[in-house]
Amino acid sequence: MKVVEINSLVLAYLGDTIYENYVRRFLIYKGLAHVDQLQKEAVKYVSAKNQAAYLKSMISQNFLLEQELEIVKRARNYKTTSHPKSCDIVTYKYATGLEALIGYLSLENKNDRIDEIMKFILEDNVC
Fold first, then answer.
1. What is the pLDDT of residue 123?
2. Which of 12, 39, 75, 91 has the fewest CB atoms nearer than 10 Å to its CB?
3. Of the residues 16, 36, 88, 112, which is catalytic?
């Protein structure tokens, strides 16, 4: 099976863990030393609302490649009716699109590209 054929939600499942790991490492290297402080800061990056904002910013700035946009669109358009209570379905689908992209890039061993995307998110801090 080709990576591009893997279910979008499975890609997002993987991408979520990778994304959160980047965020946690970033915050630790930033010097945050208390778990409650780390958790409070991490939410700024891992909330669906902010993930959606980061993705929208990347799209508006033409940061993503065509193949990456296809992965995002496929994940965003995946039929689902459930979503967290903390956000609406559209926001959730954008967040899922970002996570699916990270999962896809990981399975394709495109770690340099993940680094670029995470640098965009963590250093530019769009939100």
1. 86
2. 39
3. 16
